[in-house]
């Protein structure tokens, strides 16, 4: 696995600065160009996709907080991400996709396509009924799955580069605060194959910036349930109630 990762990283010296982090048993840190640079981002995406396809865990920036991703269809990688988080399979992981069109393969959708596109990409996790296509070892105790399409170009390009969905969770131990810089989850570095450093996400002094995505259950036709308020509660509820007439229920 490490050999495959080194091969994927070989061209990155021309596009980005690779920084060796202290005290890591494994893992490479790649500084993402501040602006979407076609060449640099393309090679960074290739490196991250190679690490994922080798069964690794990759830390990356999203539109809300830093996350850790693996291939959702890779059961061994899913077990690794549960171990990283210090949680059992009873607390579900979201899947991450690059585009709304791909959502229909892994979920049973009972809301208008326009509704999906009003909320995605964006800082919202939509909980829907899962399809038979999704790995049964991912969240085995529920018939539902949360879906993220972050409004972040790197994450979306990476998701498009992978044959199946990513499993995505926040880059922190369960019950600890979400992270806005790579240094804040330094304790996790030894268990990661690759760290994509996109710089600080939002204001690191602001608690509001650590709220993560708004999680809303849309699995029941005509209704919605807010599972986690997150950072986009007001706008999400406004769209669901006023534009689409969905009825709110308490979690």
UniProtKB/TrEMBL annotation:
Pfam families: Sua5_yciO_yrdC
Domain of life: Eukaryota
Enzyme class per UniProt: transferase
Reactions the enzyme catalyzes: L-threonine + hydrogencarbonate + ATP = L-threonylcarbamoyladenylate + diphosphate + H2O
GO terms of biological process kind: regulation of translational fidelity
EC number of the protein: 2.7.7.87
Domain YrdC-like per the UniProt entry, residue ranges: 42-232
Membrane topology: Peripheral membrane protein
GO CC list: mitochondrion; plasma membrane
Protein location: Cell membrane; Cytoplasm; Mitochondrion
Role of this protein: Cytoplasmic and mitochondrial threonylcarbamoyl-AMP synthase required for the formation of a threonylcarbamoyl group on adenosine at position 37 (t(6)A37) in tRNAs that read codons beginning with adenine. Catalyzes the conversion of L-threonine, HCO(3)(-)/CO(2) and ATP to give threonylcarbamoyl-AMP (TC-AMP) as the acyladenylate intermediate, with the release of diphosphate. Participates in t(6)A37 formation in cytoplasmic and mitochondrial tRNAs. May regulate the activity of some transporters.
Stored PANTHER family: SUA5, THREONYLCARBAMOYL-AMP SYNTHASE
Subunit relationships: Interacts with RSC1A1.
Protein name: Threonylcarbamoyl-AMP synthase
Protein's organism: Cepphus grylle (Black guillemot)
Gene: Yrdc_0
